[in-house]
Amino acid sequence: MSKGKIVEVIDKMIFACLVLYALTFLVSTPINLLVTAFVLGLIKLFWVRPKVEIRSKHLYFLGIFMICTVLSVFFNEGASFSEYRSYYISPLVAILLIFLFEFTKKRVLILISAASLVFFINAIYVIYQFFVEGNAGRPAGFADGYMLLCGMNLLILPIIFTLALYPSNIPNYLRVFFFITVFINIPAIIFENTRIVWIALAVVYPLIMLFSIKDKKKIVLGLILLVSFSFAYFQFSPTSIQRFEMISSTEYKDQPNYERMLMWQSAYNMFIDHPVFGVGVGNYHEEYINNYRSPLSREDTWHPHNVLLAMLAQTGIIGGLGYIVLFIYMFYKVIIDYKNTSNYITLAFLASLTAFFINGLTDTNFVGHNLKELTYMFYLIMGNYLTLSNYLTIEYKKS
Known about the structure:
With 399 residues, the protein is mostly helical. The chain contains 16 helices and two strands. A two-stranded antiparallel ribbon has the order 1-2. The longest helix is centred in the last third of the chain and has 35 residues, at 307-341. It starts with a helix and ends with a strand.
């Protein structure tokens, strides 16, 4: 078999892994499909070598973030490098895939279509759980937990909504399917009862409509329909109405809100006592339980439900600044990019990044405890944005 044929077979195997991942990202699988794709990409290097040209500083700031956060492991007794490797290093395979596999617009569209199908089916199951099984709590469909579903909703649905609305060369039947997926997920998201998803999408969806639709009358009509449908579905769920009404409550009786305030105070105190390198990755839970947990707290938490506070508490001002600078650069670059190009790819990433950031205000969704699948997905989306926006080009030559 020729080298060219071998490389072609490996590329097909990598893409098969990616498609399977796009169809299973809400559930646990026996093997990590992104890691498998990455390993196949490394094998591919025996036959071809990539010639890389980078035209942005995204990866440099990501490298700075990694260096800043790893210092907390070296300068804190008991800090866990294995945990750092698991939550910080391992997800990097998702963005490193861009150096080993060509993400063309066609391939990316196939992956998004597969993810859209998953959201469509899962939304139907959530609605079924609510109406038929009488699940008035936090139905998550077949997802492995409502927090995972929450994060994936905010990472991917804004992209799907952008592709459904923004003028582009995407086939009309796909745009219709994307719109149906978004529409069927409105009641599902309401019944899932995750308030940060409501807040984030209430911010992001109107922005997508504002930048995607030129006719102001259509924008107003779209917003009216969105609000009307949401209001109507809320009427089916007294639990959802109750959770909506307590969004801004800070009273002790509203346990989720009050508990988060206690967590945030504990994390802040932890940072104040360990300002430079934090308590160390892997030490948060022990420090929280033994030294920083409030007497009023009713939960045994492993993170403070806020990305910045988690960074500051575990990695100090050094790691916290690494995180802040990374996200400031990403927002700055994508906003400037959209201002200059008005490209739907850029708008999709901006919408996803904004929703993901809002999610991080009340959950530790970025390199967070037991939610590292969200970091994998975030890096995969970020890598595709870099390649499709021509911030990174790769040419292969035979070794």
